[in-house]
Amino acid sequence: MQQDSESALVLFSGGQDSTTCLAWALETFARVETIGFDYRQRHRVELDVRPRVLEQLRRDFAGWSARLGEDHLVDIAVLANLSETALTHSVEIAMQENGLPNTFVPGRNLLFLTFAAAVAYRRGVRHLVAGVCETDYSGYPDCRDDTIKAMQVALNLGMEKRFVIHTPLMWIDKAQTWALAERLGNETLVKLIREETHTCYNGDREHAHAWGFGCGACPACELRAQGWERFLSCRSNPNARPQSNLASARLQV
């Protein structure tokens, strides 16, 4: 199938980062589809919030609704069978001897991008959008810009296509991610992210905070909370408002 240069497939988990990336894609492309992955993750509640977030985006943003197309959910349970991490097994979150937290799932983003590219190939979609970043990424090697560039080259060579991987958050932190969401969808999108998305590694949907639901103690919650506080601080001081460098969001090979 011929690739459509105006279409995009967003790796959408249902969390803060991927929801912001989805909004960015809806502002950028004429047709946007989403893809999520069930890898028996400890925080599988994110799979429950995905359809609610999509439904609310369609309802609250008329300009985006017509652009938002099909959602794909891919079952890759084998990833949990192959890995022994805090995101796929009930073990305490901790740092490992190699300097990486045990929340790192080896090969996860590489598999996500490969499966996403396979779906994009079938759907005639050229652009892939992922919420990975180097700024506050816990050291995950599959979130690095060099990794994404290498994946783009490999996918293009291996599938004989011209995919373009976009990483709108690559060089910004969580405060800037909140600011980007506000710029894209105003307070309506910020409120949606706070109330509907899920980022907590422990899958906690019982405890509500100013920044959203979560246990408040895992690394994902800590990053989100700290980013929210910095975002509010910059809101009250316009001269210190976080600025996102979207010039680095596109990778062209």
From TrEMBL:
Uppermost EC category: ligase
Record's keyword annotation contains Ligase: yes
Cofactor note as given: Binds 1 zinc ion per subunit.
SUPFAM superfamilies: Adenine nucleotide alpha hydrolases-like
Essential cofactor(s): Zn(2+)
Keywords associated with the record: ATP-binding, Ligase, Metal-binding, Nucleotide-binding, Queuosine biosynthesis, Zinc
Function: Catalyzes the ATP-dependent conversion of 7-carboxy-7-deazaguanine (CDG) to 7-cyano-7-deazaguanine (preQ(0)).
Protein name per Swiss-Prot or TrEMBL: 7-cyano-7-deazaguanine synthase
Source organism of this protein record: Mesorhizobium salmacidum
Lineage: Bacteria, Pseudomonadati, Pseudomonadota, Alphaproteobacteria, Hyphomicrobiales
